[in-house]
Amino acid sequence: MAKKVQKSMFFTVRDENMRTAKCTIQRSSAAILGTRYKPSDQTILFFAAARRVGQDAQALALCRLLVDRKINIDINHGDALRQTALFYAARQGHADTIRFLISLGANPNVKDSNGETAMFFAVRKKRTAAVKALLDNGAHLKVVNKWHHTCFSLSPAEVLPVLQEERQKKRSYDESGPGPKRRRTAAEELRAWADEWPIKEPVVGKEIDFREEDVLAVKSVDKSTGKHGEYAVLSKCPGKCAARLRLSEKEFVYDHAMMMKDELFFEDLKPEDWCQNVGVLTDAGGAVEGIKGVVTGKTGSHFTLPLVQKETQTIAGYVHATYCAEEHGLRIAHLKVDEAHIGQGLGVLLLDAAEQHSHSIGWKCKQTFLSVLKANARARKCYAKAGFRVASSTAAAGWGAKKQHAWSEWQKLRKRQLGHAAPTRSTRKSVHKYALKTPAA
């Protein structure tokens, strides 16, 4: 009989009207209140925190009452699934109860047996107020569960704006080290943006499975450089690799922005401004979906060729090109070799592969042209080695609502393609340093 009374106590506190629930806590002995609900190894605090949705004030009052009774209950006690009372407050959307439990020492980043925190439950159940309460009290957003999901990847549309706002705050403030948070500089914020994985799933697309028939060009790295293995330029790749290519694209934006870090206007520009400055889609512009369409061959007027380190099957850079019919030319819009792979002649490899691919898909290109910032000495050296020459120059300026600034000079470079003019010494040499391959039909 005592066991039945004890069992009913837990559900009375959770489900009955407030008056009955309070009376149960007040009239039960500390020893009884300190027992656990055997099937799931939960304390009475779990049931108080799990009052119905909309009963946050009642849940808070019952939790306070239990604390006032000075019952020996561990605030971070984990049940059979390693969940704490905070999980149940989060699931029910009890924001004030969440704040109270955390003020008592509840850890918002405890992981259950599935590797999930209380935040996952608040997000899944669309408890916006609970999500905000958890974020305000130190809950992390980068936790990955055992199925490789984060709160972002599971977030319904109703909660996503709150998570995005918090991510922006994290990007804007430096929380490392002791003391209060420090607002990041524009350069630090831009770096944080460039490093941020661009889609919900944190692991999808980091490695690339490709077919040998999709290899356009290969290059072996000289072991004397301290690096090893082969690199390959692909004619196409799986759409899931669009996120990883976007990461290289953001690095492309960052590199160009940092050339202007000493200019007075630098602090005024956000990542979105720099994207527009160099002709890259902003995050809000469907960048990943746009890249996915290009690399899977769904667009006929432009293409992106990934550069892959074959041994690790990871992306090392890319080239993005478009067709200019009026000039019978191939326009190199972006060319990026990731920092860890620079100095191996891979920029020239990408350029020649782009020219070869343009002919294989029927573009009648007699010349290749591109634009480069005069401040970008490393890129200009690469392009000169590939046979490009300066055709014209124009002043560059700020975009959007920002005040116009003449902050550098774009140089338009041009190169006659092989077969339409005698190759220069530099282009002739570059073609024979590696094998260009004809893609399978």
UniProtKB/TrEMBL annotation:
Pfam families according to UniProt: Acetyltransf_1, Ank_2
Where does the record place the region Disordered? 418-441
Record flagged with keyword Translocase? no
Domain N-acetyltransferase intervals:
264-414
Question: What domain of life does the UniProt record list for this protein's source?
Answer: Eukaryota
One GO MF term on file is: acyltransferase activity, transferring groups other than amino-acyl groups
Q: Which UniProt keywords apply?
A: ANK repeat, Repeat
Q: What protein name does the entry list?
A: N-acetyltransferase domain-containing protein
